[in-house]
Design a protein that fits this description.
Oligomer: single chain
Radius of gyration: 17 Å
Number of strands: 3
Largest sheet: 3 strands, antiparallel
Number of helices: 9
Structural class: mainly alpha
Helix content: 40-55%
Length: about 190
């Protein structure tokens, strides 16, 4: 359906093949998020703790899409998945009950800067980072696989659901207020070198 809409718009503007290519290359990579419902995991949540959880969450977030995420979008998704109060604030009325049930289970304890620590520990051996417009694009080098921890996968899925579809124009900064984003970006730039 999305492709049909794109084709209609291209037709309305009488775009030629080379112009369509320019438009498509300027858009963020195709980030297909699985829209099917996922049930909240049952039983007790196993707390992974700190950096171990952060690493698995980054992997799960990147696995939610076929080809990774832009850096600001990864920061937004990580922020939502690790801050239940913010997730509740950003949830639409359709997702309020899901977020409330999830927030009751969420029990991780992350140190400050856990996302950057996870990125540093995963390093260039696990992450592919490339320039994409005015930002960076981050993906897993190995075939994306979900975490073995069911709750981490749910955290990633719910965060991406609440975050919603990627904007047509890539953003250079996160939509959520994140202290230290510019410093964090230096870590990503170093991986791209």
């Amino acid at each position: 359906m999305e492709q049909e809409l794109d084709d209609i718009v291209y037709g309305l503007y009488d775009l030629e093949a080379d112009e369509i290519k320019i438009v498509q290359e300027s858009q963020p990579p195709n980030a297909r998020i699985e829209n099917t419902e996922r049930p909240l995991p049952k039983g007790s949540r196993v707390t992974l703790g700190g950096v171990k959880y952060a690493i698995q969450l980054v992997q799960a977030l990147l696995a939610e899409t076929m080809d990774g995420l832009t850096w600001p979008r990864l920061v937004d998704a990580f922020t939502l998945a690790t801050q239940p109060h913010l997730m509740a604030q950003e949830a639409t009325s359709d997702d309020t009950l899901k977020v409330k049930a999830w927030a009751k289970r969420w029990n991780e304890n992350l140190p400050p800067g856990a996302l950057v620590t996870a990125i540093e520990q995963m390093g260039a051996a696990n992450l592919a980072v490339r320039k994409s417009g005015s930002t960076w694009h981050v993906s897993l080098k190995a075939k994306p696989q979900q975490s073995s921890a069911e709750d981490v996968n749910y955290d990633a899925w719910l965060a991406m659901r609440i975050l919603g579809p990627a904007p047509a124009i890539q953003l250079a900064t996160p939509t959520l207020s994140v202290i230290g984003f510019d410093d964090w970006t230096n870590t990503i730039k170093a991986l791209a070198a």
